[in-house]
Amino acid sequence: SALQEKVKQSEVVANERDTLANDVKTLTCALDQARSTIESLQDQVTASGVTADLVTEKDGEVSKLSLEIESLRNDLSKACSQRDNAESHAEDVEKDRNSIKAALQELEDELIRVRDDKTKEIERMKTQHEDSIARLQTENELLQSQHDS
Questions:
Q1: At 149, which helix (H) or strand (E)?
Q2: Which end of the chain has fewer CB atoms surrounding its CB within 10 Å, N or C?
Q3: What is the pLDDT of residues 16-36, one digit of tens each?
């Protein structure tokens, strides 16, 4: 059903969100490690010009990791938004389903009432006809007996 499909989509989005969150944590750790490495290398390298090259190289790595983290954060935000939309849609579907269920119950109750009313009316008419037939038979027998005598 559409509701089950939306629930599945919501679960997929939630799983993607969790995966992205773990990726962000992993990249954040890698970023911290790179920064730590840069600081350590800056302390260890002499003033022979190697420091500038290493710093530039490590700064490039840090920048690349920062961009990846930002991209993952954006993906996570989109995934959360999609999940929220899916949950909202699922709630709307559930409300619609409940409204339809209530309307069907009202219709069923009305049909039962009409059926019961018609059954009573038919029974009343049947009784009237049976009474009329009995009366006519009695009159017929009376006329028959008068005719015979």
A1: none
A2: C
A3: 888 888 888 888 888 888 888
Structural contact between residues 62 and 35, judged by C-beta atoms closer than 8 angstroms: yes
Q: What is the pLDDT of residues 117-128, one digit of tens each?
A: 999 999 999 999
Token look-up 């629930």 returns 7
Give the C-alpha separation, 18 to 32, whole Å. 21
Mean pLDDT across 105-115: 94
From the list 98, 79, 62, 93, the residue with the least C-alpha distance to 14 is: 79
Amino acid at 128: Q
The helix-helix angle for 50-148 and 2-44 (nearest 10°) equals 170
> How many Cα atoms are found within 13 Å in the side-chain-facing hemisphere of 137?
6
Burial of 103 (0-12, 13-18, 19+ CB in 10 A): exposed
Query: How far is Cα 28 from Cα 11, in angstroms, rounded to an integer?
Result: 25
At residue 149 the predicted structure's pLDDT band, cuts being 50, 70 and 90, is confident
